[in-house]
Amino acid sequence: MSLATDYKETIAPALKGELGIKNVHALPKLQKITVNVGFGSMRGQGKIAETIAADLARVTGQKPAIRRAKKAVAAFKLRAGEPIGLAVTLRGSKMYNFLERLIRTSLPRIRDFRGLPLTGFDGHGNYTFGMKEHTVFPEIEHDTIAQFYGMSITLTTNRVTDSQAELLLRKLGFPLKSAQ
Questions:
Q1: From CA 74, how far away is CA 77, in angstroms rounded?
Q2: CATH of domain 31-155
Q3: From 12's CA, which of 78, 80, 145, 180 has a CA 20 to 30 Å away?
């Protein structure tokens, strides 16, 4: 059973009972997942943008958008309009497919993984975490890796409180550390 149908059939009714919410539309729900990769010091390395874009498209199933610098910063040798990163925003079925692959295959492949910290919540029900290496995704071919890079993944929910968003992510099977 896919994660989207699991949410509709089992998770939503469970959340209804636990939170005491009667309206289905008021339940906590995942709205989008945003995956960001910054070039940083790799900017000057030839065709690194195309390589990262191809890897990100393979991992997410969607073509990434180029993010450009808004203004020039002389200390970083950065000009306005220069590409500095890539971003993918996933919604709907692609979002649930990516989340399912992330939870079931990619996160368990991280060395010494003991769960994600609860400090990633922003106070508005959104959760952000970083991955140091992109090689944990099974779609990445290890033979063709020229450069290692990290990424930031943000899960945006429709909740205002972190506790309801945390409950939603735990019900979806997201590996969060327990509160101590």
A1: 5
A2: 3.30.1440.10
A3: 180
